[in-house]
Amino acid sequence: MTLNSSVFAANHLPTWCPGCGDYGIWTALKEALVKQGIGSDDGLVVYGVGCHGNMYNWMNIYGFAGLHGRTLPVAQGVKLANHKLPVVVVSGDGDCLGEGGNHFLHAAKRNPDITVILHDNQVYGLTTGQASPTAKIGFVTKSTPDGAVDAPINPLLLAIAAGATYVARGFAGDTPGLIKLMSDAVEHKGFAVVDVLQPCVTFNKVNTYQWYRQRVYRLEDEKYVPDNKMKAIERAMEWGDRIPIGLFYKEIRPTSEDHEPALTGDPLIRVPVASEHFDSVLQEFV
Amino acid sequence: MTLNSSVFAANHLPTWCPGCGDYGIWTALKEALVKQGIGSDDGLVVYGVGCHGNMYNWMNIYGFAGLHGRTLPVAQGVKLANHKLPVVVVSGDGDCLGEGGNHFLHAAKRNPDITVILHDNQVYGLTTGQASPTAKIGFVTKSTPDGAVDAPINPLLLAIAAGATYVARGFAGDTPGLIKLMSDAVEHKGFAVVDVLQPCVTFNKVNTYQWYRQRVYRLEDEKYVPDNKMKAIERAMEWGDRIPIGLFYKEIRPTSEDHEPALTGDPLIRVPVASEHFDSVLQEFV
Amino acid sequence: MRDSIIWKIGGEAGFGIMSAGTMMARAFARVGYHTMVTNEYPSLIRGGHNLITVRISPKYFESMNREVHILVALHNPCIELHKDELNENALVVYDPKDHEWQASDFPKPVHLLPVPLMELVNTLNGSPVMRNTVTLGVTLALVGADFSILESIIRDQFKKKKQPVIDSNIALAKSGYDYVKKHFPDETSMYLSKAEKKEPQLILNASEAVGLGAYRGGVKFAAIYPMTPINSVISFFADHAKQLKIVYKQPEDEISGINMALGASFAGVRSMVASSGGGFALMVEGLSLAGIMEVPIVINLGMRVGPATGMPTWTEQGELQFVIHAGHGEFPRIVLAPSDAAEAFELTANAFNLADRYQTPVFVLTDKYLAESHWCVPMSHFKKEYTVERGKMVNESDLPADRSYKRYRLDVDDGVSPRSIPGMKNGVFFSNSYEHNEKGYVTELASERVAMANKRLKKFNAMKKDVPAPHVYGDKNADITFVSWGSSRGPVIDAMEMLRAKGRTANLVHFTWLYPFPEDEVAKLLSTAKRVIDVEQNASGQLAALIREHTGLKIGEKILKYDGRPFYPEEIVEGVEKSL
Amino acid sequence: MRDSIIWKIGGEAGFGIMSAGTMMARAFARVGYHTMVTNEYPSLIRGGHNLITVRISPKYFESMNREVHILVALHNPCIELHKDELNENALVVYDPKDHEWQASDFPKPVHLLPVPLMELVNTLNGSPVMRNTVTLGVTLALVGADFSILESIIRDQFKKKKQPVIDSNIALAKSGYDYVKKHFPDETSMYLSKAEKKEPQLILNASEAVGLGAYRGGVKFAAIYPMTPINSVISFFADHAKQLKIVYKQPEDEISGINMALGASFAGVRSMVASSGGGFALMVEGLSLAGIMEVPIVINLGMRVGPATGMPTWTEQGELQFVIHAGHGEFPRIVLAPSDAAEAFELTANAFNLADRYQTPVFVLTDKYLAESHWCVPMSHFKKEYTVERGKMVNESDLPADRSYKRYRLDVDDGVSPRSIPGMKNGVFFSNSYEHNEKGYVTELASERVAMANKRLKKFNAMKKDVPAPHVYGDKNADITFVSWGSSRGPVIDAMEMLRAKGRTANLVHFTWLYPFPEDEVAKLLSTAKRVIDVEQNASGQLAALIREHTGLKIGEKILKYDGRPFYPEEIVEGVEKSL
Ligand SMILES: Cc1ncc(C[n+]2csc(CCOP(=O)(O)OP(=O)(O)O)c2C)c(N)n1
Ligand SMILES: Cc1ncc(C[n+]2csc(CCOP(=O)(O)OP(=O)(O)O)c2C)c(N)n1
Ligand code: SF4
Ligand code: SF4
Ligand SMILES: [Mg+2]
Ligand SMILES: [Mg+2]
């Protein structure tokens, strides 16, 4: 039986606003999982709390919808307990870079074999529209009625600076492109970040599909090769009339799990509880 | 009466290990404050929890020794309440980049007029020697008996990526250099980070004074001009036989306080409680 | 003519029904009615079913009840979900284009009032969201009110918009009004009795009341990370920051929030945070910091259904014991819980005085029901006298030139030592999370530790004089004594009325000051009560546990609700009868 | 010949006195003595005064007491600080190069034993830190023990070092031993009675015991951010990770720590966290998450003096009420508090079974006194039978192929539904921080919410059968009944012995299982007691409050200590006498 994305169908229908960029991301994620041969029983998605995270209600695959901002620690804990299980994180710009910013840094540093899909809509959607850490200067929201004033966080730059080994940007209006990036991210052994430009039709009237369509260009179209950190940083800083999408940076280095001496064989969940060393450990204290 | 650093003398004597790099940092900080005309009653130092933070016991100036990892939120709160008060943060690599990593990111993003002195010794000193976020790969500590495995955090790169507007590195063995960097940092209007290479003679037997002395070079000696982000990033990534110290990057942009409409005049602590707008606000709800 | 009308309007999120509810309440409040608005919505942005309930009466009341007189359905699920709740002969307003409802679809007789909402909107070139405006006009006609009261509200509501927007909204409302007058001229069954004009009334939710109370209390700094149900506190501050010279900061997380607020307070201004249970959980370490540093701070915690993310848009009173015991180590705190928006204003303003007086954290516990319902509060309530009392703040000029000032001096009866603030000449001290001596320097000497801990704990005693006895509503000698706290008051009071109608007497011992606990007064009040019933919106009876801890008295009967919906008075009456 | 010797060695940090203490304890334990080691040190890395106390006795004892028989001073402050505590005729060992102490410097008569420690070290080309080894030899001679017992310990202690290191240490120790034999041949006043050889004894602190208990309990994952006093748990895991196939992760902060541990547990392995109060404060939101998701987790909280950073290297029992009420919303949990390292081992292993049985968080509360003192525990204690019981875990093969498996099925009497783990065929579910239905999907329906909340709360009832009555030590009909919990047991038991010597009878109702609270048993036990005295290491009497909350009984007399030092039994005796 060949896998197809209908295995992920659940009872609930999406409650996102009509036109929300999350639909495109959701579709792409399902296709990317299928491409990687991951069905309902074969992988785990860890969801943040936000509009993005509501996805778990219409996604039939093992799921963990935990606390706002804490996807990455959960995902790392799972991965260390069962390093054979594919783990994808669905997070938002508020979830991952606001409440969860520290975990983002430190996950990148450790390089666990996890893929993060970052729904980047510049707002806190679920709490009805405050500025998120990626909100650009001047952006008017409920919490910034006179426009945002802080320098926005650049998720790609941050990911590269902190040590992520697969760093890409997609656009929710470009499902085929997203499928490719996500599928490659899942395939990549290491910490993969896919920042997705996600129009929020309700609370972000600036960065619309239209707005993005006029600006995005594909890195691959410019023969860009994603193997150089400095070049990647340079492209990551490009934002304005032209906004690059595609793969910015990729590197192979041992994952967090590779480093663990206890994980050389079976995943921990299959390692039986043993007491063979108990006597020798007790002896240390005599 | 001219100010001199003896005004900071307190009853307690330092309890740092003999030879600890914190002595040099402490000396330099006092001199830098004097250079900036800041005496005991004129400024505030916010301390993290760690060996570095113990400094508050031998430092006679307004002090706030709060929770582990939370210096920057405190400093920002103070600064918004009283934007005329000079505020310096004394923090550690564990305090500022481990427990407090998220605040570091977001402070840099906001650009409050605060100077952070980051005691970078690669260990958690006060808890007797576990790896800190800046610990280099292979570094043996209590928590990494087989050597650290994660990519170290690069405080300079992170500061630049997140938006800090004054980014420098000093060496605890070079007090004059440190004084200059710290004094300039305090003078700088914006978020200034001074990462200080700090030998920990007790728990870091690798990165000794000797080790650093053989490697550090001054950026200014190479006619480096700290006005370009990409160049700064390139230098920030240099670590090995040659380690640059000095000012990597400087930029002027409005501070967090500049942006606040309530802070155009007197600091908030001097703005009397007024109820002149009370009636009109009540009227909005009728 | 009716003395109370309950009107419900339901549709998808984004249909503008929230503002319809408050406009309705405001329109009637302006002409002397007492009103209240509650909302129910899932934790989704769009889709799902949103419901607004408005109660209007010429007489004062405290809560909603189970009656439904008029149901306005902007989509079919509204009727499907609520048809069983309708009063006999309730009016049902719907667009016949959505569905042709039949009397037989309803369990009880109802008056079906098909109104071509979409058609009326289209005729006037309005957009579909403007159907809510049409239904306001419809409703005004159905309750026999004058159209003019709606017109003035529309003008005010849209005053920042252009004139054509205002005109078109008025025209839409009028078309609904006229449609009823024309097609259902005899539909007078829900006409409201006339109300007497009263002083101006504010229509506001308890989060806005917290914002207003904070402003009254002289707040200068607030750091609040978004979270239901306190987002209106954020909007209040963000929208008024410039005008009121307040700094509102959106922190990166709640940990940063409380530490920023403590920094600002330490520096000398009144400051606060707000969150719900999950966000407050992240502030617990900071709470303990405020305790040892003796930094005043006001914490507004808006409770919602837990644990964890729980049901974020539904109400509960689940965090009483949590806030009383939150934080490592032992230190004083005060816990207040308003019963409605009026008290939310008053207690928040007072909280700032208490926080400064005792240099310690003060909680204002609200919940989703309080924080997102709109309450009707007379203007004069906000004009009551209030004085900002900063407690023991030193004057810079009084600081001894020999630099002998000690921030944490021990020889203070109430445990509160005079504070300097950074930047004051000769006022240097160390605000220290480590145990410290009078100057703030670290100490680990047994004697100094005990002395400083005792100084802090002395505040508990000092506070005793401020702790009010719980409020007793109703006849002291009643057969039934309810105990409740915070937002449960309204339904209990209305239930007492219903019980009286059934010939039973009841009173209520109600707590808005929960901690330190007024143990002596409570022991006295309850030990003579005949039948005590605890009424709380949680599963374990946390107030009852607190009462037992402090008085030894065990309350056997409890009426507990934890499905996320506020109590109906009828449920309390049933509870009383069931447990007989 | 003496039945108990208390030996103290003091100096600056970095003088190696910690290891001197454990070597001493181990040496004597190997030949049948009962031993105990406590430490006192400031929260500083160097400087300040560190003190190690070792008690050695051929008989079993439970705590230190106020006697000091031998004081070894590696610097002058040691004598200045402790000379008032010395027994009459205590031995004082010091280096005459540091100071020429005179008998008149001491309040009571003492035997001054100047030993040229530095000179002995220099003679053998040792380094100054090796003075501690010399003092071990000195002490052996002073208590009349055989040098060989020290020699074997030195060999084991340095076994990872090179032979010359071992030899030189032995030579140093021997030089101290010989010096005493030669210069003070008549100093036999502190000779210890002989002990009978017993089974092997482990010398370990309670954090190491937690680590061992966790290993026994099958732990596979631990995420622990460094914090006093649980750093030995980290070292235990870091040092044994490879050998024992455990993953220990140092998280970036405690929030990450608990979320990692919950992820690992959800994925299917036993997992734990450890911290002190401040770090645990940051885990409170995660605790609530574990509650609603029903994910098992073991939390070791090592209490220290609060609030905030407090006195991080000193002891307190200040977090009992905090852990019972921590977390927003209401959910079941279990709170255990071992009295010594032996119980720390046992309760930690049990905690994992309980966490799995009830799919809920289980606390193991230790404190600085437990976690950093070294206890002497017989080997057989660790060999008691223990079976890993994972509770209701489904077998992959039992999962229905029609995919009808429901992770949170409601029809379970004990509230515990069978768990699948991610990756199992046909076991899909959603671990949801939102309120959810049987499958784990979100729900906001009143009925589903109440059903799921009730299911979780049912566990409280189910747990009742596991809750042991508090342990009663001593005669049931005694005149005095102490109540205590956790680490206060030792001093109370030793105090009971002292009271007996004074003709008073006392018993102890001691709690190691604190929550859910064994209310019926306690009510029964205490209601017949003649005079009840609460003994706790905190300022408010938290156990007494808990007892009153659950039984209504008020304990009037309290002996509370909160200066950071563990109780001396004498203080309890004094407390009993004072409050007469
Ligand atoms: C600890 C905590 N703080 C705050 C919240 C409230 N909250 C829920 S979603 C959200 C923001 C979501 O923003 P983002 O991650 O960008 O997701 P989006 O809705 O935009 O997809 C917040 C602040 C929470 N659930 N928990
Ligand atoms: C919430 C919390 N977690 C842990 C600790 C324990 N702790 C105290 S200092 C410290 C690390 C200090 O490391 P660093 O900031 O690098 O300072 P250093 O000692 O190296 O100067 C830790 C983990 C604490 N005090 N609070
Ligand atoms: S609010 Fe924005 S992000 Fe949320 S569902 Fe609607 S469009 Fe999407
Ligand atoms: S442990 Fe290291 S950082 Fe701490 S005082 Fe000693 S040398 Fe300095
Ligand atoms: Mg977002
Ligand atoms: Mg450090």
Task: Walk me through the structure.
The complex is a heterotetramer, with two copies of chain A (286 residues) and two copies of chain C (580 residues). Chain A is of the alpha/beta class and 286 residues long. Chain A has a single domain, classed as Rossmann fold. Chain A contains ten helices and ten strands. Chain A has helices at residues 22-35, 71-81, 93-99, 101-110, 155-162, 175-187, 209-213, 229-236, 256-259, 278-284; strands spanning 44-47, 62-65, 87-92, 115-120, 123-124, 130-131, 166-171, 192-197, 216-218, 243-250. Chain A starts with 21 loop residues before the first helix and ends with a helix. The model of chain A has no long low-confidence stretch (mean pLDDT 96). With 580 residues, chain C is of the alpha/beta class. Chain C has four domains: 5-183, 3-Layer(aba) Sandwich (Pyruvate-ferredoxin Oxidoreductase, domain 3), CATH 3.40.920; 203-383, Thiamin diphosphate (ThDP)-binding fold, Pyr/PP domains (Rossmann fold, 3-Layer(aba) Sandwich), CATH 3.40.50; 392-466, no CATH class; 471-579, Rossmann fold (3-Layer(aba) Sandwich). Chain C contains 20 helices and 21 strands. In chain C, strands 9-8-10-11-13-12-19 form a seven-stranded mixed sheet, sandwiched between helices. Chain C has a six-stranded mixed sheet with strand order 2-3-1-4-5-6, sandwiched between helices. In chain C, helix 13 (341-358) links the parallel strand 12 and strand 13 (361-367). The longest helix of chain C is centred in the N-terminal third of the chain and has 21 residues, at 163-183. Chain C is globular, with a radius of gyration of 26 Å. Classes of the chains: A alpha/beta (286), C alpha/beta (580). Chains in contact: A-B, A-C, A-D, B-C, B-D, C-D. At the A-B interface, helix 4, helix 5 and helix 8 of A face helix 4, helix 5 and helix 8 of B. The structure holds thiamine diphosphate (2 copies), iron/sulfur cluster (SF4) (2 copies) and magnesium ion (2 copies). Residues 16-17, 20, 22, 51, 121, 125, 200-203 of chain A line the site of one iron/sulfur cluster (SF4). One iron/sulfur cluster is lined by residues 16-17, 20, 22, 51, 121, 125, 200-203 of chain A.
